[in-house]
Amino acid sequence: MKSLFYSRLFILLPWVLIVIIMIDIDTKRTSVRSTAHFYLSRLGNAQRQDRTSRAGSNRTALPVIYAITPTYSRAVQKAELTRLSNTFRQVQRFHWIVVEDSNIRTELVSRFLAHSGLPHTHLHVLTPRRYKRSGMPRATEQRNAALGWLRMHRTPRDSGVVFFADDDNTYSLELFDEMRSTRQVSVWPVGLVGGRRYERPLVEKGRVVGWYTGFAVNLQVVLANPKALFKRRGSQPGMQESDFLKQITKVEDLEPKAHNCTRVLVWHTRTEKVNLGNEPKHRQDTVVIEV
Ligand code: UDP
Ligand code: MN
């Protein structure tokens, strides 16, 4: 009887030990997971407190549209920014990343953004003088600075769509509805560009087969391709955007927007250089007027 008991015990004991070890491993794993969850949620709280107010920054909420606007000081700058902000203020879940081509954040733009009522991030980076020549791509450093900011301050938990909004273009509100659903990279026609009434991606059976112009990128694609940047070297003039897209997607994966790329919802308007020929040489007014 006793020997039967011992023989059963020897058979069962290793199994009991295995079960105990398994249970132990599993509880350790859950505790690691819950610690990680604790830190992640704290991180989430800290981020929510930043001035960009990303309330409910999760995948179920409407993705935030991040518009990247390079801008530089000139007579029309405030007028351009005013026109843009009047459009952007009507877009929900919107975050404006304004990057000044300057070695400082200027007072004009700082004040302007503070009064704009828009969630924003204000960055600056000066374009080296050697790149400030006609025929050279513009705003390369500024766009890259904004991408860098997104990669530093946004995480895989944030849902968003990134697009590049030059300060002199004209944007229809419908464009934002279109781009909001960008899964990877979406494209659409642009009006008044390249010496033509419009340029558009060629679409066949819902797929992009030809060249493209306007585009938006899902935030997660920006984060997943940390090295994708606008390049000065090796990029022909006017090809910087498509060179950037080549780093993150394939033509056949592009998502056509704006009714299969048949509607123009953004115009490459350009502001005439203003004539300040009658500006007094020495300031005559008694007050300083910001224009
Ligand atoms: N830009 C800049 N620094 C410059 C020239 C342009 O930051 O020295 C910005 C400008 O404010 C605009 C974008 O780069 O948002 C594109 O410039 P622009 O509209 O002059 O170029 P376009 O594509 O119309 O020729
Ligand atoms: Mn322009």
UniProtKB/TrEMBL annotation:
Compartment(s) where it occurs, according to its Swiss-Prot or TrEMBL record: Golgi apparatus membrane; Membrane
Predominant location category: Golgi
Positions of the catalytic residues: 241
Enzyme Commission (EC) number: 2.4.1.135
Sequence positions that bind UDP-alpha-D-glucuronate: 70-72, 101, 138, 143, 166-168, 268-270
Keywords: Glycoprotein, Golgi apparatus, Manganese, Membrane, Metal-binding, Signal-anchor, Transferase, Transmembrane, Transmembrane helix
GO biological process, one term: carbohydrate metabolic process
Site, Interaction with galactose moiety of substrate glycoprotein: residue positions: 199, 278
Glycosylation (residues): 260
Catalytic EC class: transferase
InterPro entries named in the record: Glyco_trans_43 (IPR005027), Nucleotide-diphossugar_trans (IPR029044)
Residue numbers binding Mn(2+): 168
Pfam hit, one: Glyco_transf_43
Membrane-related topology note: Single-pass type II membrane protein
UniProt-listed Gene3D superfamilies: Spore Coat Polysaccharide Biosynthesis Protein SpsA, Chain A (3.90.550.10)
Catalytic activity: 3-O-(beta-D-galactosyl-(1->3)-beta-D-galactosyl-(1->4)-beta-D-xylosyl)-L-seryl-[protein] + UDP-alpha-D-glucuronate = 3-O-(beta-D-GlcA-(1->3)-beta-D-Gal-(1->3)-beta-D-Gal-(1->4)-beta-D-Xyl)-L-seryl-[protein] + UDP + H(+)
Pathway: Protein modification; protein glycosylation
Record family assignment: Belongs to the glycosyltransferase 43 family.
Subunit: Homodimer; disulfide-linked. Interacts with PXYLP1; the interaction increases the 2-phosphoxylose phosphatase activity of PXYLP1 during completion of linkage region formation in a B3GAT3-mediated manner.
Name of the protein described by the UniProt record: Galactosylgalactosylxylosylprotein 3-beta-glucuronosyltransferase
Organism: Albula glossodonta
